[in-house]
C-alpha cells in the first residue's frame, strides 16, 4: 500500500507532465509540395509546416532513401489575432527524386513530435523531348485537358527554360476570347535536365474556363528578356558593369476543342466541377426551436475546378408561411491553388417560427457534372423537419387532444362532490389562459423589440435602392431573354454605379467575361446579323463580376517579372 505522501507525489508528477510540450500540446506538422506530380531529374520542394515550435530539430535522414536533399531553409511567423497568439514554423527542402514512382515522404521526427507521411508522383523524364539543346532560352506551354467541356477548368502551364543569366524578364498574359482566365499562385523555380543538358525552369500556371463550345485558340506568349552578355567591356571601376542585350522569344499557340454540355445532363443549371461538397449547419437544435426566437441555418457549397460565378443559389425552395426567414447576403470566395481554382459559396438564413408545430424544409439538390469521371452527379441535402415549441416547451396546437379520464362516481350520493369540482376546473383554466396570454404578450414584445433589426433596409440610400431595382430588372430580363429590357437595366445600373452613359462604357469598366457578354448584347441589338439572344450567360457573368468586386484580389495590371537578379 502506498502512503499518502507517495500518492501526492505521483499526482503532482502527473499534473506536471500534462503541461510538458511533448504531451498535450504536441505540434501538428503538415507536409506539402510546390507541385505534384514532378518528372525524374527535376528538383522540387517539400515543405514541412508546424503550428507551433516542435519539440526538437528535425531529422530528415529518412528522406535520403528516395530523395537527394539539395538544400534546406527555415522560417517562422508569429501573429496575434483577437487576443490569441499563433505561430507557424516552416522548413523548405529542395530535393530531387532518385527514381520514378509514387514515392512516399516518410514521417520525420522533430524530437517527440512527428510529421505525417505524404506521397508524390514522380514520372519518367521524357527522353526524346523535341528541344534543340543549342537553345539556351525557350518557352514551353501545355493545356490539360485539351478537349474540355464548356465552363470546365483547363490548367494552362507555362515553363521558361534557360541556361544563361537573365537580369530581368517579362511575360504577357495568355489571351483567349470567350473565356475566364485566372493566374494560380506564385511562380515556382526548379532545375531539370533535357537530353543531358541542365536547365533552370520557371513555371507559371493559369486556370482557363472557356465559355462557349468549339475550337478556341490560345495565342502564343511573348517573353522579353534582358540577357547578360557573354563579353564584358575592359573598363575598370564604375564602368565595369555587366552588359545586357534584349531578346524576345515566343511560345506555340494551343487550340482547345471545347465540347458543349452533354445531352444527358438534366440539371437546370450547368455546373462542371472536379469535386463538389454541399452541407448544412444549424446554430442550435432545430428540433427544439422556440416560437419567436431565431435559429440560423448555414448552407455551404464548395467546388473544385470552377468559379464562384458558376455556383447556383442554394436557398430557393418555398417554405411554410408560418416560418419567417431573413437571409443574409451570400459569402463568395475563391482560393487559388497550384492544382486549380476552389470556389466557395455560403448562405445564412435566420428562421423564426411564428406558431408551434412541425415544419418541413424542402430538399436541396445540386445537379453537377463531374469533369473527372465524366458523369452527372447530384449533391443533396434531404428534406429537413424542424420542430417549433411554445415558450413553455410544448406543442399545444399540434398535439392530439387528450380526453379526460372518466371519474368513477361513488354509488353513495352523499360522497359525490360535483359542486366543488366544477369551480376548481374553472379556476385552473383561468390561470392557464392568463399564463398563455402573458406568453403571447412577451412574444409580441420581443418581436417589437427585434423589429429594428430590419431598419438598415429602410435606411438604404436612394442610390442603393435604384441599384437593387436595376439588378432585379436585369435578372428578369435575362431570364425572359429580353435583350432590349436587359440593355435598359444595364444602362441604369451603369449610370448609378460608374456614371457610364453607354453599353460600351459599362463594358470597359467590367471584367473580361462580363465585357464580352455586354459587347455580344450590343451586337445583337445594333449589329447587322441580329439573332436570338440568350440572357443566361450575361447574368452569370454579371453575378461573377459582382463577386469579384467583393473578393480582395490584388492585381496591379502590369507584366509580372519572371526572373530578377
Sum this structure up briefly.
The protein has 565 residues and is α+β, with helices and mostly antiparallel strands. It is built from eight helices and 30 strands.
What does this structure look like?
The protein is α+β, with helices and mostly antiparallel strands and 565 residues long. It has four domains: 29-123, Immunoglobulin-like (Sandwich); 137-260, Immunoglobulin-like (Sandwich), CATH 2.60.40; 272-389, Immunoglobulin-like (Sandwich); 463-550, no CATH class. 21% of the residues lie in helices and 38% in strands. It has eight helices and 30 strands. It has helices at 4-17, 418-450, 455-458, 462-479, 483-498, 503-508, 512-526, 536-550; strands at 29-33, 38-39, 43-50, 67-81, 84-97, 101-105, 109-110, 113-114, 118-123, 137-144, 154-162, 166-171, 179-194, 197-210, 214-218, 222-228, 244-250, 254-258, 272-273, 275-282, 289-290, 295-304, 323-327, 331-337, 340-353, 357-361, 364-370, 375-381, 384-389, 561-564. The strands form nine sheets. Strands 20, 22, 23, 24 and 25 form a five-stranded antiparallel β-sheet that branches. A hairpin with a 2-residue loop joins strand 7 (109-110) and strand 8 (113-114). Helix 4 runs antiparallel to helix 8 (536-550). The protein is globular and about 95 Å long.
Structural descriptors:
single chain; 565 residues; alpha+beta; Immunoglobulin-like; 4 domains; five-stranded antiparallel sheet; four-stranded antiparallel sheet; 8 helices; 21% helix; globular
Amino acid at each position: 500500500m502506498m502512503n499518502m505522501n507517495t500518492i501526492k507525489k505521483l499526482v503532482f508528477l502527473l499534473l506536471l507532465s500534462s503541461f510538458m510540450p511533448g504531451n498535450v500540446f504536441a505540434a501538428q506538422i503538415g507536409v506539402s509540395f510546390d507541385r505534384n506530380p514532378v518528372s525524374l531529374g527535376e528538383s522540387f520542394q517539400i515543405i514541412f509546416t508546424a503550428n507551433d515550435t516542435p519539440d526538437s530539430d528535425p531529422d530528415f535522414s529518412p528522406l535520403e532513401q528516395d530523395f537527394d536533399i539539395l538544400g534546406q531553409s527555415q522560417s517562422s511567423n508569429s501573429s496575434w489575432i483577437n487576443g490569441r497568439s499563433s505561430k507557424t514554423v516552416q522548413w523548405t527542402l529542395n530535393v530531387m527524386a532518385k527514381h520514378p514512382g509514387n514515392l512516399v515522404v516518410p514521417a520525420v521526427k522533430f524530437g517527440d513530435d512527428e510529421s505525417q507521411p505524404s506521397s508524390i508522383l514522380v514520372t519518367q523524364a521524357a527522353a526524346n523531348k523535341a528541344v534543340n539543346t543549342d537553345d539556351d532560352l525557350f518557352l514551353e506551354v501545355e493545356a490539360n485537358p485539351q478537349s474540355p467541356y464548356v465552363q470546365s477548368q483547363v490548367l494552362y502551364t507555362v515553363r521558361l527554360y534557360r541556361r544563361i543569366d537573365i537580369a530581368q524578364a517579362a511575360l504577357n498574359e495568355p489571351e483567349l476570347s470567350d473565356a475566364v482566365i485566372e493566374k494560380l499562385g506564385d511562380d515556382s523555380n526548379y532545375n531539370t535536365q533535357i537530353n543531358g543538358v541542365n536547365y533552370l525552369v520557371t513555371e507559371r500556371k493559369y486556370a482557363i474556363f472557356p465559355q462557349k463550345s468549339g475550337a478556341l485558340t490560345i495565342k502564343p506568349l511573348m517573353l522579353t528578356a534582358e540577357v547578360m552578355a557573354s563579353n564584358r567591356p575592359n573598363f575598370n571601376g564604375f564602368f565595369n558593369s555587366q552588359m545586357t542585350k534584349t531578346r524576345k522569344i515566343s511560345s506555340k499557340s494551343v487550340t482547345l476543342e471545347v465540347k458543349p454540355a452533354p445531352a444527358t445532363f438534366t440539371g437546370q443549371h450547368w455546373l462542371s466541377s472536379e469535386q463538389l461538397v454541399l452541407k448544412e449547419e444549424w446554430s442550435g437544435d432545430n428540433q427544439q426551436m422556440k416560437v419567436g426566437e431565431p435559429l440560423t441555418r448555414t448552407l455551404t457549397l464548395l467546388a473544385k475546378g470552377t468559379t464562384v460565378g458558376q455556383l447556383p443559389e442554394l436557398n430557393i425552395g418555398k417554405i411554410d408561411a408560418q416560418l419567417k426567414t431573413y437571409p443574409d447576403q451570400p459569402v463568395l470566395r475563391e482560393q487559388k491553388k497550384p492544382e486549380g481554382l476552389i470556389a466557395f459559396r455560403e448562405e445564412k438564413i435566420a428562421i423564426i417560427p411564428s406558431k408551434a408545430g412541425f415544419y418541413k424544409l424542402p430538399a436541396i439538390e445540386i445537379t453537377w457534372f463531374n469533369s473527372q469521371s465524366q458523369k452527372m452527379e447530384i449533391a443533396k441535402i434531404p428534406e429537413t423537419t424542424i420542430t417549433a415549441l411554445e415558450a413553455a416547451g410544448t406543442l399545444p396546437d399540434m398535439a392530439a387532444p387528450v380526453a379526460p379520464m372518466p371519474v368513477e362516481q361513488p354509488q353513495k350520493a352523499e360522497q359525490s362532490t360535483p359542486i366543488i369540482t366544477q369551480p376548481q376546473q374553472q379556476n385552473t383554466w383561468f390561470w392557464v389562459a392568463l399564463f398563455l396570454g402573458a406568453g403571447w404578450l412577451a412574444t409580441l414584445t420581443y418581436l417589437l423589440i427585434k423589429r429594428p433589426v430590419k431598419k438598415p433596409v429602410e435606411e438604404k440610400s436612394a442610390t442603393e435602392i435604384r441599384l437593387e431595382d436595376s439588378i432585379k430588372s436585369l435578372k428578369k430580363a435575362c431570364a425572359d431573354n429580353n435583350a432590349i429590357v436587359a440593355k435598359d437595366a444595364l444602362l441604369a445600373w451603369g449610370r448609378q454605379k460608374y456614371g457610364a452613359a453607354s453599353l460600351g462604357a459599362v463594358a470597359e469598366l467590367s471584367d473580361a467575361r462580363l465585357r464580352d457578354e455586354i459587347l455580344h448584347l450590343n451586337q445583337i441589338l445594333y449589329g447587322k446579323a441580329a439573332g436570338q439572344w440568350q440572357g443566361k450567360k450575361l447574368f452569370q457573368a454579371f453575378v461573377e463580376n459582382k463577386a469579384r468586386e467583393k473578393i480582395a484580389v490584388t492585381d496591379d495590371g502590369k507584366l509580372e517579372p519572371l526572373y530578377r537578379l
